[in-house]
Amino acid sequence: MKTMTAFRAAMMMLGMCWAGNASAEAAEAKPRIVILATGGTIAGSKADPNTRYRSGTTTVETLVSAVPSLSNVATIEAEQVSNVGSQDMNEEIWARLATRVAALRARPDVGGIVITHGTDTLEETAMFLDLLFPTGKPIVLTAAMRPSDAVSADGPRNMLEAAMVASSPAAADRGALVVLNDVIHAARRVSKINTGDINAFASDERGLLGRIEESRVRFFADPPPARQAVAVPLPIPARLPKVAILYSHAGVDPDLVRILPSLGYRGVVLAGVGNGNSSKAMLDALSEAARKGMVVVRASRVPAGSVLSDVEVDDRALGFEAALDLNPQKARVALQLRLLGGARR
To answer: Which residue of 12, 57, 304, 321 has the fewest C-beta atoms within 10 A of its own C-beta?
Structure first.
């Protein structure tokens, strides 16, 4: 396949330098890793050098066959769950992912799962899976900022390193992980912070979970205390409860808050200024929505820091709750699953 030439050549070179470091123990007993592909830039290509690339055009079989070093790490199975740009990721695909992840984790012969994904909504899918599967076998998401046929494609190395992390016993019981550019992130901590740079993701002030160094997976700490999965029915329905995100800004108009119930929304996340704050008019409208049964969560448009209860806003009086360390998009996913489980608060 012509469009895969650069991708395959780059991975062959990478495979030569990494395969030489494989330990005897790894050669004796390779785990079985299942790669679930959803599309994204990692599976994108440029049919013409003078045009924009298209996400989700390369199949998982082609991606895996172009990364021969994977066979040094694990016995690989591959499935195509979807093939879309992650701007088109949706709840129906999430439901399929959750069903496959649950089934695969129940198989005794499967050691871990790798999910290839687009970068734009990767953190939301990671949060979704982290809430459903906070313990047990590793779930590792990976992506790329350059399409598969770019001269310096980053997808091959990211996919290889994701398989290495998914193969590591130390990766178990850590919820969903995100692996990019030699770094291991926790789903709750990671966000996309740059529109185009190769190093487009960062963890918040709580820090990275670990790194891949010289073909070795190194975590900086033991797994955290066990967390309970959200109480939701499986299989997940293809439509989750509707939750909106409203962005606060100077002169924000609260009219949108008033029409959300008529559109079937059960919750709203405020992407507030500062510590999740907004104008008095907006807070009044949100408080009225809360009195009518809508769940209101305050998050912040600021990229770092937590939103705490009853600091700048009287949450108890107004009927709000605070997102704490979750950004607006992750707070939305968490609220959707909580509403699906039947809990209002």
So the answer is: 304
Tell me which architecture the domain covering 2-219 has in CATH: 3-Layer(aba) Sandwich (3.40)
**Chain region(s) in the chain for CATH 3.40.50.1170:** 2-219
CATH class of 242-340: alpha beta
Question: Phi/psi at 166 (nearest 5 deg)?
Answer: -65, -25
Q: Show the tokens assigned to 144.
A: 């790329």
> Of 41, 58, 62, 121, which residue is the catalytic one?
41
> For strand 139-142 and strand 112-116, is the pairing parallel, antiparallel, or unpaired?
parallel
What would the pLDDT profile of 284-312 be if each residue is shown by its tens digit? Answer: 999 999 999 999 999 999 999 999 999 99
Pairing outcome for strands 176-180 and 139-142: parallel
List the one residue out of 246, 236, 281, 237 whose CA is nearest residue 267: 246
Residue ranges matching CATH 3.40.50.40 in the chain = 242-340
* DSSP labels, 95-159: HHHHHHHHHHHT-TT--EEEEE--STTHHHHHHHHHHH--SSS-EEEE--SS-TTSTT-SHHHHH
Q: Catalytic site residue 119?
A: no
From the CB of residue 325, how many other CB atoms can be counted at a distance below 10 Å?
17
| Burial track 69-101 (b if 16+ CB lie within 10 A, e otherwise) | bbebbbebbbebbbbbbbebbebebbbbbbebb
Question: Which residues, at least 6 apart from 10, have a Cβ–Cβ distance to it below 8 Å?
Answer: 151, 152, 153, 156
What is the sign of the dihedral through the CA atoms of 36, 38, 42 and 43? positive
Of the candidates 205, 170, 203, the residue with the CA atom closest to the CA atom of residue 189? 203
- Other Cβ atoms less than 10 A from the Cβ of 22: the count is 14
CA distance 159 to 63: 9
